Amino acid sequence: MSLDSLNIVPPNLMSLDDILPQEPLLMMGAGPVPIPARVARANSLVVNHLGGAMAKVIEQVKVMAQYVFQTRSPWVMGVAGPGSAAMEMAAANLIEPGDKVLSISNGFFSNRMALMAERVGADLIELDIEVKSAADPSLVRAAIERHNPKVLTMVHGETSNTVCNIHLKEIASIAKEYGCLVIVDAVCTLSTMPLKMDEWQIDAVITGGQKGLSSIPGVSLLAFSEAAWQRIQERETQVVQWCLDAKLATNFWHNDGYHYTAPVSGIMALHEALKLVCEETLEARFNRHLRCSKALQEGIQSMGLALFVPEASRLNSVIGICIPEGLTATDICHHISHKYRVEIAGSFGQPVVRIGQMGEQCREHNLFRALHAFGSSMRDLGVKVDLPTGMAQLEVYLQKKHQFVL
Ligand SMILES: *Cc1c(COP(=O)(O)O)cnc(C)c1O
Question: Which among 198, 246, 364, 406 would be 20 to 30 A from 290, CA to CA?
């Protein structure tokens, strides 16, 4: 074969500098969220994944993750992959073919968990919850009594439509009465609002990097309870997905050995993100999130716009705003990003646009810029809004002393 036969020539394309905007956009959508400089620096490192430095980092990541998950369980581990990979890892390890699984479905992400359960062979029962509502514990109890599931899956905060399952603790406790394991998707809520894995008797909690933790996308964390670990030990069938096998993952996460080459840079980033959570403390972080989110909600409503979900079941980690008549989410997102350099998100299936309140998004300077950009975009697009009042109410809320009961 001569070199002439290599007729596919190297492409001459744009450089990254040509592709990326000169002034970065402020990411106020539903994730990824802005990352602190310390996280970005850590993410540029590559070290030997089996060396002494990595072992120390892994040890610290686990200890910090136990704090963030509020668990004493040693079965904390990471996975190379998105939040969805962590969801899939929980499902693949805790469900065996033929197991009855009750999936509480509040929307797009909790439904994804049901799809994953089905793929690993679950005998699936889906409990569909009315839009804008949190799952009602009495309905869940009735479903558990009727079907006697081995595993229950649910989402803490349904990012897609901004509903919060405020009865999570009560539902987990009901499931435990019936010996049912509970898997919780906390991708957008971990470190943004209270979630106590041990105290609330949750058997698997999963999260991604790019939301509440303000780390990078693509490296995720999960924790199994002792009861969940017991179930994994007693499995009769092998976990089909080799990469997601939790027992194999302990080679790396608990025994300084090799499973697959770990995403070292992403784990370094996660280490820094977790360190920042520990330095801030969970309590202060929850307060910051609640205060900032409520202030932004106040600003949006004072401007004359409506929020999608009633306050009782409203998620604070991501704010869903009803789209005024005549506009689409695409119109709004396009305008705000082009004219004001702020990115917000549309939605999966609901007539809302969403502004994120996770991690670094919850900083006062970001609130003012995002609200101003959003109100101005509305005005530009012909919606009657009272922008000065909205901005003023944001400041008024932030100046008040708030005592939140978390
Ligand atoms: C974003 C999100 C996911 C999916 O995370 P990926 O990293 O995109 O896979 C799952 N659940 C919830 C609640 C989310 O907000």
Answer: 198
CATH 1.10.3300.10 fits 43-279, yes or no: no
Q: Is the pLDDT of residue 5 over 80?
A: no
Whether 274 shows a pLDDT value over 90: the answer reads yes
The SS3 call for residue 159 is coil
Distance 364 CA to ligand 1 centre (A): 25
- What confidence score (pLDDT) does residue 401 get? 82
Give the other-Cβ count within 10 Å of 379's Cβ: 14
User: Going by DSSP bridges, is the β-strand pair 204-207/219-224 parallel, antiparallel, or unpaired?
Assistant: antiparallel
185, 189, 207, 220: which to mutate for ligand 1, most atoms within 8 A of CB? 185
For the chain, the domains span 26-32+281-399, 43-279
Residue 182 class from Cβ within 10 Å (0-12 exposed, 13-18 middle, 19+ buried)? buried
396 burial (CB, 10 Å; 0-12 / 13-18 / 19+) is middle
How many helical (H) and strand (E) elements, i.e. helices and strands, does the chain have? 14, 13
User: Does the C-beta of 108 come closer than 6 Å to ligand 1?
Assistant: no
Q: How far does CA 17 lie from the centroid of its chain?
A: 30
Q: Is 109 in the pocket of ligand 1 (CB under 6 A)?
A: yes
The pair of structure tokens assigned to 50 is 């089996």
Largest CA distance in the chain: 77
Instruction: For residue 28, give the amino acid letter.
Output: M
- Going by alpha carbons, the residue nearest to atom 6 of ligand 1 is 83
Whether this prediction's pTM lies above 0.85 is answered by yes
C-alpha to C-alpha distances, 218 to 40, 264, 386, nearest whole angstrom:
14, 11, 40
Q: Please state, in angstroms and rounded to a whole number, the distance separating the CA atoms of residues 316 and 292.
A: 9
- For residue 9, give the DSSP letter: P
CATH architecture of structural domain 26-32+281-399: Alpha-Beta Complex (3.90)
Which segments within 159-297 are labelled E, that is strand?
163-164, 181-185, 204-207, 219-224
Q: Which of 265, 228, 207 is nearest to 73 (CA)?
A: 228
Distance from residue 73's CA to the centre of ligand 1 (Å)? 24
Q: Is the pLDDT of residue 394 over 90?
A: yes
pLDDT, tens digit, 9 for 90 and up, residues 199-217: 999 999 999 999 999 999 9
